[in-house]
Amino acid sequence: MVKDIFEHVAILNAHIAQKIVEEEGIDEYCTTPCDIAIISHDKKYVQRNYIGKMLHHLSEYEFMERRGDVFVLQEAWRRMLPARVNSVKILREKDAYSLFLFQELLAKKFIEIVKNESQKINLSELVYYLDTIDGCDGLNSIRSDAIAELDLSDSPKKIFDFNHGLGYSAIQLSSLFSKSTIYSLQTNAAFRDAYNYTINRFQRKNIKFAIDYPSEMMNQLMKDKVDLICLFNPLGIEVREIGRFLDISKQISKKGTKLLIQAPLIDNPKHSLIAEWLGMCVEGMGLYSTLENYKVLLSQHGFEIDKVVGINNSIIAIYNP
Fold this sequence. Notes:
This protein is α/β, with parallel strands linked by helices. The chain has helices at 2-23, 49-60, 75-79, 84-93, 97-116, 123-130, 137-148, 168-176, 192-202, 216-224, 239-251, 276-280, 291-300; strands spanning 37-39, 64-67, 70-73, 121-122, 158-163, 181-186, 207-210, 226-232, 253-262, 282-283, 303-309, 314-319. The chain has two domains: 2-119, no CATH class; 137-319, Rossmann fold (3-Layer(aba) Sandwich), CATH 3.40.50. It is 45% helix and 19% strand. The strands form three sheets. The chain has a seven-stranded mixed sheet, sandwiched between helices.
């Protein structure tokens, strides 16, 4: 599912790249309209941090091929660039068009970002386009894959959700664990209104939520404790924020409480939702952490790592004070 979505996003990105190539006047390096080439040593883009990391990332995914100082589309792509309209249709059907909308937004600003490297994209814009009011199948699939790694024999009675988007992780948990009570805490003040809208719109009876910490809900959970805590962090919130979340997690955990963290790791960026180079373009996004950093942080808060799944950067830990 995720691979299929990203493939169609990549097709649309190729159409964007073709337009940029033509508008920037570097199409002289292209033998056909689809033979998109980027000259890495061109003075306009010389050794730019962002574009260099982006090109290597795309070549790792085999969307582009390096030929000396030139990056070109892979042969299969250059022979016949798939039609734009088909990919647009499929992404809309999968409720994942928001992923492409962000890429389009990025493309509009990318040339200026590459030229001066001082501009940044606002984190709120990124979250909005990735987690739209109608939800995004791409993020849902990533969360589902992470949840599947828990290998739960019984449904947890109380599940806690750290939310820093529009609330869709809480909605998804309420569907997957219909017999559980989901407690969701909004940690991003910028999305309080949108979060309230999402939660109230779906009207799930098994969701309780709060937009403030401390709050009456949180005070009660510190007494009652929870069975499972979920922290979905595909955008890479800064480590100091993760430490704050783990401090809260410690207060609402009992011996044996499971903690699921889905987050980008700097030692496995290829499997991250947000590539390392793109993270550098976003104002407010933290640096990707390493697994060793998480081990230290978790240990400091009484959690022991039980399992690490590299394909979706999932860390499963158990509270054992």
